[in-house]
Specification:
Layout (H helix, E strand, L loop, with lengths): L22 E4 L2 E4 L5 E4 L2 E4 L18 H7 L6 E2 L10 E6 L6 E8 L6 H4 L8 E4 L7 E5 L8 E8 L2 E9 L7 H22 L1
Antiparallel strand pairs: 1-2, 3-4, 5-6, 6-7, 7-11, 8-9, 9-10, 10-11
């Protein structure tokens, strides 16, 4: 748990948001690797959830430890986004702007929507590209709008039935990152937040 002080929710910060299978041999017979099982979810085959983490009552500004924040080069105070700028749940902004390129990470705790909702429910957008992400123990996908210019990228993790962790990387310095880099950075932050949540269990 981070011991850094947290900025007040009243801070004026606008959210810049959009919007494997292993085989083991035993006695000559193939057996699926439980950690790498997949299931067909909507149009994508996502990993089966083998763990469960709750987001109820979780402060998104405390999902990254001091060591993780240092690794990410976050240089301000984690700031809770004003409720009017949030989408589906409490959202925290982690700014990296001490020197160019400038960008912001966002972590959002959603307790009202399952990951499936981005594939077949009200959160599904045909304009968005969705690809599976490997985060052991959890179904996850990266979600972004493909185009000539790279767009913000988010990683969505189905941490529990009806609960989704959203991690996003949003650059403010134009042209500094390609699409793959932004998605990889969003996934890194999602992975760090999962580590923090698991450590609290």
């Amino acid at each position: 748990m981070s011991t850094r002080p947290k900025a007040a929710a009243a801070g004026v910060l606008a959210v810049a948001v959009l919007s494997g299978c292993g085989v083991a041999q035993q006695s000559g017979r193939a057996a699926p690797d439980p950690a790498a099982e997949t299931k067909q979810t909507g149009e994508l085959a996502l990993a089966q959830r083998t763990k469960e983490l709750t987001l109820h009552g979780v402060d998104p500004c405390r999902l990254l430890t001091d060591a993780q924040l240092d690794e990410l080069k976050e240089n301000g105070l984690p700031e809770l986004v004003d409720a009017k700028d949030q989408r589906d749940g409490p959202t925290c902004a982690f700014r990296v702007d001490a020197k160019a390129p400038h960008y912001t990470y966002y972590l959002e705790t959603i307790t009202t929507a399952d990951l499936q909702d981005w594939l077949t429910g009200k959160h599904k957008k045909s304009s968005m590209t969705k690809e599976p992400v490997n985060l052991p123990g959890f179904p996850a996908l990266k979600n972004y709008r493909a185009g000539e210019r790279p767009q913000d990228c988010e990683t969505l993790v189905g941490v529990a039935p009806g609960q989704t962790l959203r991690a996003q990387m949003a650059p403010t310095t134009e042209g500094a990152f390609d699409q793959r880099q932004m998605c990889d950075m969003a996934t890194q932050v999602a992975s760090m937040a999962l580590q923090t949540l698991e450590a609290r269990k």
